[in-house]
Amino acid sequence: MDTVGIDQSRLPRHIAIIMDGNGRWAESRGLFRIEGHCRGESIAHEVVEACGELGIGHLTLYTFSAENWRRSGEEVQALMHLIETVARRQIEGLHRRGVRVNVLGRLHELPCSLREELERDMALTRHNCGLRLNLAINYGGRAEIADAARRLAERVARGELLPAEINEERLREELYDPTLPDPDLLIRTGGEMRISNFLLWEIAYSEIWVTQTLWPDFGAAELLQAIRDYQARERRFGAVPSRGEPVGAGAGLLL
Q: What ranges do the domains of the chain cover?
């Protein structure tokens, strides 16, 4: 892995990826859509390994969105089976490398066998101290915020909390994983210029990098390109630019 130009002292702490383009990749080759998802699984493995080697703390992969249930029943069933099969096949290797597996989303709505596999994987790796791999499965950003608001309302109803005490920090505490730091870098493959209901609360100040490359053609080299562009940015979090830098200065396709 060619890390030339990468500043190890300024790595993003948390990278989140919208892995888009599996279906389009397959259809452009006359293949079934699920074959694109299978190819995408090998790319996810490559990216996980690259992040581990770099020393990235957190990687979140948009694996199956809440909206993906709208796809054909055949494709949804195939995706559920693929996710479960990959999790079962990869977990021992991830565990040996010290990766901690975490799942974000409404797990209770998943098929029983998949939910049990994911729960076993999280239990097996919960004490690992390496890369924290977050799989967003049956995940939606609006659903996460709605679930957090509901839990706060339940606390108010029980008399544990006053409405006036609800603030951003209280809401954050009710997110699926309040210990997860906000993503520093959000990568989207496939060229679409939208965030698709992904980590809506958490990406308020994330740097966004979009590539036309479809996910099955992505890899460690392009991940490093995204990190280099990220490191060329000055993150301001709403503050004014440094003296001498024009507003809007940036690099690549970072938004």
A: 11-141+182-231
Dihedral sign computed on CA atoms, order 168, 173, 178, 181: positive
What is 11-141+182-231's CATH number? 3.40.1180.10
Averaged pLDDT in 10-residue chunks for the chain of 255 residues:
91 98 97 96 97 97 96 95 97 98 98 98 98 98 98 98 97 97 98 97 98 98 97 82 52 46
Active-site residue flag, 102: no
Active-site residue, selected from the candidate residues 22, 68, 121, 128: 68
68 is catalytic: yes
| Residue of 20, 22, 102, 184 with catalytic role | 20
